[in-house]
Amino acid sequence: MENQKSYHHKNLRNELIEKGIRLVNEEGLKAFSLRKAAAACGVSHAAPYSHFQNKEELLEAMQNYITDEFSAILEDTISEYGNRSDVLEQLGKAYVVFFLKNPHYFSFLYTQSNMKIDLSFRQDKDRNYKPFEIFMDLALKRMDQADYPEEKRKDAVIALWSFVHGIASLATMKNVSYDEDWENKITDFMSVFHCSFLKENQNGGQ
Length: 206
Fold this sequence. Notes:
- By secondary structure, this protein is mainly alpha-helical.
- It has 8 helices and no strands.
- Helix 4 (about 85-100) runs parallel beside helix 7 (about 150-170) and helix 5 packs across helix 7.
- The radius of gyration is 20 Å and the shape is globular.
- The protein starts with a helix and ends in a 13-residue tail after the last helix.
- Mean pLDDT is about 85; it is low at about 1-10.
């Protein structure tokens, strides 16, 4: 029993976050409470208050936790594949695989949190959603290297993001069935999209 108490004390903040994400997905935001998160973790109703003042603070921590994990995966992928011509495809694959492994993150982040993405290409990047900024920055660098027309770049970024986001959405939906392994097929899906516009000078014209 003493070891169990020590375990909870040591890891309680992250456990509350993880259990909280699952609870919100299962029961919705209105039914969620610190009391329910505490019960899911097997600790007293008062225990969460040593980490979070209220439900809203825990919800914000849940959103930030997923965002930080997601951002780290994307940044690690760029570090590993940054010198390769297929780095953008690898980034798309990392996006999908992250949510394949954590489907409850996808559901919480895009349906239950107050996360917002600004597609307007404004300069205030620090206030935009970090994973989108990481993806956009890499896509724009690849377009610059390919001399892709300036006036088409915004549309291309949105199309690329939508493509990988759509695959992740399908792969994490409980009511979608598929007879092949999503993770094994991601490379095939990405090769269909191909990012061919990055491999030709579109100003030259085919």
